[in-house]
From TrEMBL:
It comes from Penicillium egyptiacum. The keyword NADP applies. The chain holds residues 75 to 340 of 350 of the full protein. Signal peptide: none annotated. Keywords: Membrane, NADP, Oxidoreductase, Transmembrane, Transmembrane helix. GO terms for molecular function: oxidoreductase activity. The keyword Transmembrane helix applies. It comes from the Eukaryota. Belongs to the short-chain dehydrogenases/reductases (SDR) family. The chain crosses the membrane at residues 15-34. This is Uncharacterized protein.
Amino acid sequence: PDYSLSVMSAVSEPVAIITGAASGIGLALVKHLIAKGWRVVMADINDVAGLQAAQDLGSDRVVFHKTDVGSWSDQVSLFQRAWQWSGMGRLDLLVANAGIFRPDDICDTGSDDTPKEPALEVLKVDLFSVFYGLKLFVHYSKKNPQPSGKVVVTSSPTGIYPFPFGPEYCSAKHGVIGLVRSMGPRLQKQGIYINAVLPGFVLTGATPAAVSSLVPEDYLTSLGAVCKAYDMFVDDFTHFGQCLEVSVDKVYFSNPPAYCDEAQAF
Ligand code: NAI
């Protein structure tokens, strides 16, 4: 197909899809990007909170799309909507941020002979969803004469350290880092820059009250500090396959051992 006409009708502002946009880190990022002049498609499974948040923003540069990121067909429809809304010509950024935390004690197998099935919903929402979004982002970026764009994944320090309180969550967050580091160099050659932000402890809707009361105030990371960490990837075309930890008010790259650079050459 000839996309030259649709490129001409594309909106002039950069366009982002942000998942998990109805609250917490996602919503803070929506506000941050809107203030910087972006258009944002807000995706979330919670349509009540999402529609309300979009309405409260009072901007014609946001639109809400109900999406279960763990569903491939939901993500297909999200990207179709975003592509149409952008004038069928641009998709600049995906922030794959939606996530859930559901603790499940793997040692609790139940009392009878048949063990309980592990709760793997977390892997679907926190890990598979990123594969879905990335595949679709690559697909749509190919529609542009010069493919380019950014993907930023919200991982967590539990993506590089052990987290015995949530092994599924920890595995999913490790998994997305594996994806980012593996695909970073290859996608960069195609003009797509994929990186991960690993926020420290941020008080959001997802934080159980019992946990937040245990965390000392000077250990908390603010939403403002998290947004600045995303800026390092959104505004810049030098990083790819990187993980940026943001803890309290400090940001630092978490690098794999040097031999990995040589492995990337293959
Ligand atoms: P939050 O609960 O405030 O936001 C998560 C959003 O994702 C919610 O609006 C929720 O409705 C949405 N969501 C849940 N399941 C979904 C699905 N299947 N499809 C679409 N949307 C879905 O939590 P928060 O803290 O803003 O979390 C955002 C991301 O940050 C998550 O990936 C989380 O794991 C990560 N993170 C959070 C940290 C924290 O301390 N709050 C620390 C490190 C990482």
